[in-house]
Amino acid sequence: MKNITLAGGITRDAVTRTTPQGDKVTGFSVAVDDGFGQNKKTLYFDCSLWGKRGEVLAQYLTKGGKVTVAGDLSTREYEGKTYLTLRADQVTLMGGKQ
Is residue 69 within 8 Å of 32, Cβ to Cβ? Predict the structure, then answer.
């Protein structure tokens, strides 16, 4: 298990879906700046929050908001691209867009 904590901006509104097994999962994306000056780049993380907590928090996880997320880091491949994913254990709303 690779735990990571990141703080950044939410890039798209959270969406809650139901798996074929009936489990609820809420997905959202977080952008984090890395480096500074001309070496500055942005890393994007696809985050998932499972269960009732995700359903409740979905209304607050909106584009432009700030959040701190901690959980298990992994990657996934899709159409030749590698995506950073985070299965969230902890989510803290930091404010931002009202």
Answer: no
